[in-house]
TrEMBL record:
A Pfam family the protein falls into: FBA_2
InterPro entries, alphabetized: F-box_Sdz-33
Every Sdz-33 F-box domain range: 87-140
Gene label: Cnig_chr_IV.g12504
Name of this protein: Sdz-33 F-box domain-containing protein
Length: 219
């Protein structure tokens, strides 16, 4: 029915909610490029299916992937997901190269297994200015929590940062697209990194959630 409507009105789909696995092949064949895709929990049951989604479905604005039924903890994805905004539940398989080599503007990872040394590498590469040029906001929720003090030391190791107890103009929201805004939680303390082009990256760590917000101070 949806395919018939699209054909009659010559109107492409701009958002698609995948709640069963059979719809994956259907949308790939009908319209492999789409603005918003949401794949619900439990739809992806194999590495092969996930690989087909990542290689054949181009999501330009927001790609959301719920929890998969893949239980191979050795499985990794090293290629970036080509979407402006990505949200991934149970993202243990999403690795450092997939982040560094992507052009994503917003990344939200849940139940991540990224070690803190990898987050440290992300911050260093962002500050050098050769990678992550489009990044506006990064949020990583870790599976394990070892204590804020230890995490801070490892994440910020060898970085030139300024502790900041005041907001000092930092935006409280991230614009996801024209019709949706993500309001950021209040954090009492951040560490600011400054890039050569004047962009500021504010780092915060609350319980087991790492946040990195990129912004520019208004004159």
């Amino acid at each position: 029915m949806v395919e018939h409507i699209c054909e009659v009105f010559r109107s492409p789909l701009w958002v698609f909610d995948i709640f069963e696995e059979s719809l994956i092949e259907w949308i790939i064949n009908l319209q492999p490029t789409i603005r918003y895709v949401f794949i619900e929990d439990g739809v992806i049951t194999s590495i092969e299916t996930l690989d087909r989604v990542l290689k054949n479905l181009k999501v330009t604005e927001h790609f959301y992937l719920g929890s998969t039924e893949i239980h191979d903890e050795e499985f990794e994805v090293t290629e970036p997901i080509l979407s402006g905004f990505i949200s991934i539940a149970r993202s243990y398989w999403f690795t450092l190269p997939a982040i560094l080599n992507g052009n994503n503007s917003i990344i939200r990872l849940y139940d991540s297994m990224l070690p803190h040394k990898d987050i440290n590498t992300i911050l260093k590469e962002w500050q050098r200015g050769l990678k992550l040029r489009n990044l506006e906001y990064l949020e990583i929720e870790h599976v394990m929590h070892r204590g804020i003090r230890d995490d801070d030391l490892e994440v910020l190791e060898d970085l030139n940062f300024t502790p900041n107890l005041e907001n000092a103009g930092r935006p409280r929201k991230v614009q996801i697209h024209d019709e949706r805004t993500y309001w950021l939680p209040h954090v009492p303390f951040v560490c600011d990194l400054v890039r050569d082009d004047g962009m500021i990256g504010s780092v915060s760590y609350n319980y087991r959630v790492f946040r990195f917000q990129v912004w520019r101070r208004q004159i």
